[in-house]
Amino acid sequence: MTKVGFGTLNWIVLVIYLLAMLGVGVYFTKKASKNTDAFFKAKSSIPAWAAGFSIYATTLSAITFMSTPEQAYLKDWAYGVGSLSIILIVPLLIKYYVPFFRKLQVTTAYEYLEERFSPIIRVIGSALFMLYHIGRVAIVIYLPIIAITSVSNINPILIACVVGGLCIIYTFLGGIEGVIWSDVIQGILLLGGALLVVLIGGFTVKGGFGTVVSDAISNHKILSGADMHIGDLTKFIPLIFAGQFFNTLYQYTGSQDVVQRYQTTATQKETNKSLWTNGILALITIPLFFGMGTVLFSYYKNMGGLPQGFNTSALVPYFVITEIPAGIAGLVIAAIFAAAQSTIASSLNAISSCFVTDFKQRFFDNKWKKISDVTLARIVIIVTGLFGLSMSIYLLVGNASKTWDLFLTVTGLFGVPIAGIFAAGIFTKRSNSFGAILGLILSVAVTVFVQQNSDSSLIVATVAFISSFAFTYILSFFAPKKYIHNIVGLTAATVKEDYVKQ
């Protein structure tokens, strides 16, 4: 397939966007440099709506921006049902999770795990998060770039260095406040970019949106009876909902890049508002991003098909570069990179908060007195950011993505089980560190077995959460007395009571 030129005007728009992101980081440098409270929590000064936008942008990567429309283009909207799980998750977070994070004034999610269980559980949760997100940074840079450069003549190494490098710099400078306000801009841009694709694609088709709707109905592109047939688990709606529920619950309870936002607002009431803001945006995503895929299906059905042998993972960038006017196309490509940068920046700041809070401050504070915590956080951002960028370049040059996918799979296996441990700690009184450690090990073993014998990642997520919760609770009954300690104020049954730190 012949690649398309990106065009001078598109480059100008993209460069303006990238410089604007750098400007945000520079603007917040002085405020972020004061102390770790400013660098990791923005001194709890972020408005609820901005924190909500930031959570949304963090959880929506460039991979989602392109893969969700691809899913709707090739199949239907069945996976959109999973996004509805946010309706159940937000009330659950507000009533049972956020109160503990706010009460303990945690910097990282894993501080709760220490108070509820033991330091070893905190270390395990934090270390696994860091490992996974260091690897994820590389993939979040690599995948959108490989998709865009497969249909255009943009140099992949150059764009990786510019997009990834500038993201590292503004995260280094602005701390979490710079990251959040960058997320707001990026969130607006990616929503606007998706809307542009829907509108331009829909109005260009002969007959407009009437044709799009007709094509969607006649080709079963929204939902069909097959989506309720248990014979194909990849389209079975109840499983999609359950799997997405547990995956999303991990993101909002056991993943530091999201939990960190809960402390950036002044009060729990403001945090609650931010979660509802995010929830509304997540619901908007369903018609917007799945709608993109349906519109593009109708467009290429009626306006001439895709090139022979076309890789549909590049569907969105191909349409943008070939069909949208110059300048506007640059804006939508900027939206794809915005989705990538919001995820990368959140990961880097969260990794640094884990390293400084869960390791340096917790275990080595007296030995590392010569270096300030903010300086150390910035060093961690530079080191992990450059490592992730280097790995993405290695993947672009060496096409070794299978090896890196294996690394992400192994470290990612621990994510949802950690969410199961959080849930066991909050919703049961019996669970203790003895059960949590053994439960995590057994849950990962069961999850690996299921993954090797199933084609559905959603089955894996469902099994991972349920097995982790169940093993932790059951095995805690066999714990020696030394593993049992005061947990008043740390469980759902005592959520309104004060917790006295041991």
Automatic annotation (TrEMBL):
**Can you tell which superkingdom this protein's organism belongs to?**
Bacteria
Q: Which GO terms describe its molecular function?
A: symporter activity
Per the record's keyword annotation, is Transport included, yes or no?
Answer: yes
Q: Which UniProt keywords are given for this protein, alphabetically ordered? A: Cell membrane, Ion transport, Membrane, Sodium, Sodium transport, Transmembrane, Transmembrane helix, Transport
Localisation per UniProt entry: Cell membrane
Q: What is an annotated GO biological process for this record, any one?
A: sodium ion transport
Membrane spanning stretches: 6-28, 48-65, 77-98, 119-145, 157-176, 188-205, 275-300, 315-340, 376-397, 403-427, 434-452, 458-479
Q: Which GO terms describe its cellular component?
A: plasma membrane
- Record membrane topology: Multi-pass membrane protein
Short name of one Pfam family for this protein?
SSF
Q: What is its main location?
A: membrane
Q: What is this protein called?
A: Sodium/solute symporter
Organism of provenance? Companilactobacillus mishanensis
